[in-house]
Amino acid sequence: MPHNRFLAFLLIFGLHTFGLRAQAPEPAAKPAVPAVSPARVIGYYGAWTVYTRKYFVRQIDAARLTHINYAFAKVSAKGEVIVGDPIADTGIGARPPGGVAGGNFAELRDLKVKFPHLKTLISIGGANDSENFTATAATPASRQRFAASAVKFIVTHGFDGVDVDWEYPCAKGEQHGHPNDKKNFTLLLQELRRQLDARGLTDKRKYLLTAAVGAGPEKIAGTELDKYPKFLDWIVVMSYDYHGPWSTRTGFGAPLQHDPGDIRLILNVHGSVQAFVDAGVPAAKICLGMPFYGFSLGQVPPGPNQDGLYQTLLTPLAPKAAKMLPYRDIESDYIGQPGWKSFYNTTTAQAYLYNSQKRLWVSYDNARSMATKGAYIRKNGLGGAVIWELSGDGGKLLPALSQAVKGIPAAK
Question: What CATH number is associated with residue 70?
Fold first, then answer.
């Protein structure tokens, strides 16, 4: 990446060995091949997609990726990392239709043989399986046990690293969070880094450690972001879901910049990036989340521009119309269909649709959004892009994103 590319020039001066006569300086050495850019294109692969979409690891367009994060492994009640879905992950029990012996983990290992540049990480936790993190991170003994099990897991199953997806430290309610999560998460990452590095010395290789962190102010408040760069290779910023089915007003799910019509000033990708940088995270360790999905909302009035944008719902939180839609479904079932008009907001780099007859509104990222956000990553020297999640693509988003972010060697 241009902002992180360092070239070393060596000007050699010498003295004549016996006559102590100064020689003319030799020409500056030609620069070596530039250092590998840290820009990454990382894709989350969801284990459940073998059932819901018949989407298998072997179908991943791995040539356009640098890393795959496999979602998810679980944290057991004992605080150990365990397989999330034994059937899909490792092929234990009845295989999903189209599955292979050894499950998705075996397919990931085969994929890395075919694409040697590719690295894989096991993502631990997620929205549905983070309830045991608080107890796991609470004591030195439990942190050591967790880290040891994580190292054993990746060595056993052939992963190159660990991605911790605790949603979310200090969260209230169903996630059973605690104020001590803030400091304990840092200590958990520190112990993971220690044990991964120790195993790396034995195996003569580098094991990766990353974490996914919420992009909103309340999520950031539950972290010690300034301490994370010491332990993490990069941080996944979950820069999406700024608006969605929980909203009472239409707004974009992943706006790049603040749009004057949006009453929430800091809930946008650039605002989140600035918050992370201000908290002490180097730009090169920030990897932006990219949604391969959108949201629909119902009971939306047309508004002055007849597009439904920034309008208060006539029936707040209309549940039947509020949906999370993979991009592939938006492309096939909404775009260009009768009654639907397409729009694009250049400030936010967001596409949206409106059906005035049905009063339905859909917000999403398209290929143009991906290209614009990829250019933003390169311009600002960020660490790369992270896709949630790969099965949502209809074949257009990943190529556009990869082309925009890369144009440079894949990161190791």
Answer: 3.20.20.80
